[in-house]
UniProtKB/TrEMBL annotation:
This is Radical SAM protein. The keyword Metal-binding applies. Keywords: 4Fe-4S, Iron, Iron-sulfur, Metal-binding, Pyridoxal phosphate, S-adenosyl-L-methionine. Residues 75-297 form the Radical SAM core domain.
Length: 376
């Protein structure tokens, strides 16, 4: 509750103090330099009083990264498994839950035994075709990453390995020719039976064209030159990239430098992220406006709930429900409850999810809004 004796400036200062007390901040040297030149970058990494607003969950994913009693493993889909070898990042994006003091700076990592158990789990189920190696950031510990790749690559039924990273923005100098060659060595084309080929690709998180400095572009060119596909993943962020111009600029820069536009994520309802969250409809409107332009609709627009990704195409009619005075998006998902529960450690669906008469999961996702956030 706001103290009525405080002026607006004093109140904002008090909220900023709360933010700093509750969340950690970290920037790499090159990112700190970039933040001085770009407001869009600064807003993503410099703590703000708005983060102290009471909102959101602290652990949207961490609990899931301990599936089947195997630390660092996660599986929610039939054909995919996620491995998180290293949980730390070299900068904390303000719209992400990693900045919480319970998670930030913990430098947790999978042990050799954890990796062995995860690999055994993946080896034992032929339905798993894709392994996503994510974080924190797997590029922060290339030796550990190599250890995981050495074990995952030989599994016969694993055909796709994808590495999720934002460290190319934080430390472009870390993507050396040697690292690019090491990653490319886990690619194999089977000319007799292409279905047996194995691909490795990078999911690169970039939210604004200002992030594509010459060092960053050079870094991912090293990967592309080695034949590695780079997918561009973007989070829709209010006041940063939530305009047709901004997303179009980014897509054009992706396409002209060899990045394939992949996901446009709606910003998740995590702690301290309320002021970054647009309405879900805003992303649909932007994609509709971009539809006439080449390549710009290549993004898959998604929001994420604990049961997985929800894809929404331009023209999709959102269904709204009111829960405790807040606007939620209700959606019949393509995921069957029985399938989800087969891979879950729990015998129940997460809160705000239910099953319809056909056995599909119905989800409820907290919407954002498009008004400017007011600290009052
Ligand atoms: S790099 Fe990724 S995991 Fe790390 S803080 Fe940013 S969004 Fe979160």
């Amino acid at each position: 509750m706001r103290n009525p004796n405080l002026t607006q400036t004093e109140y904002e200062r008090e909220m900023l103090k709360k933010t700093i007390k509750r969340f950690r901040s970290k920037m790499s040297p090159s990112l700190a330099r970039l933040a001085k030149q770009s407001e869009a970058v600064a807003k993503q990494f410099i703590p703000s009083p708005y983060e102290a607003l009471d909102f959101g969950t602290e652990t949207p994913f961490e609990a899931g990264k301990n599936n089947q009693g195997i630390y660092g493993l996660e599986r929610i889909y039939e054909d995919r498994a996620v491995i998180t070898p290293y949980f730390e990042c070299s900068a904390y994006c303000r719209y992400c839950f990693k900045k919480t003091r319970t998670l930030a700076g913990s430098a947790k990592r999978m042990s050799d035994e954890d990796i062995e158990k995860a690999v055994q789990f993946i080896s034992s189920d032929e339905r798993i075709r894709t392994v996503l190696i994510t974080g924190g950031d797997p590029f922060l510990d290339p030796e550990l990453l190599k250890k995981v790749l050495d074990k995952v690559f030989p599994i016969p039924h694993v055909r796709n390995i994808r590495i999720g990273t934002r460290n190319i923005l934080f430390s472009p100098e870390s993507v050396t020719d040697d690292l690019a060659k090491m990653i490319a060595s886990y690619k194999r084309i089977d000319y007799h039976d292409p279905r047996l080929s194995k691909n490795i690709s990078i999911g690169l998180s970039i939210n604004h064209v200002d992030e594509l400095t010459k060092e960053v572009v050079r870094a991912y060119q090293r990967l592309i030159k080695e034949g590695i596909t780079v997918w561009g993943q973007v989070v829709l962020l209010k006041g940063i990239n939530d305009s047709v111009r901004s997303i179009r600029d980014l897509v054009e820069a992706f396409l002209s430098t060899g990045i394939i536009p992949y996901y446009l994520f709606h910003c998740m309802p995590v702690v301290g992220a309320k002021h970054f969250r647009t309405s879900v409809q805003k992303g649909l409107d932007i994609l509709r406006e971009l539809s006439p332009y080449s390549g710009t609709t290549a993004f898959q627009y998604v929001y994420v709930t604990p049961i997985g990704k929800h894809r929404i195409a331009p023209g999709h009619q959102l269904e709204y429900v009111d829960i405790d005075g807040q606007r939620y998006i209700r959606s019949v998902t393509p995921y069957k409850a029985a399938d989800f529960l087969e891979f879950s450690d729990s015998d129940q669906l997460p809160p705000l999810h239910e099953v319809n008469e056909d056995g599909y999961i119905v989800s409820h996702y907290l919407d954002g809004h498009d008004d400017e956030e007011i600290l009052a």
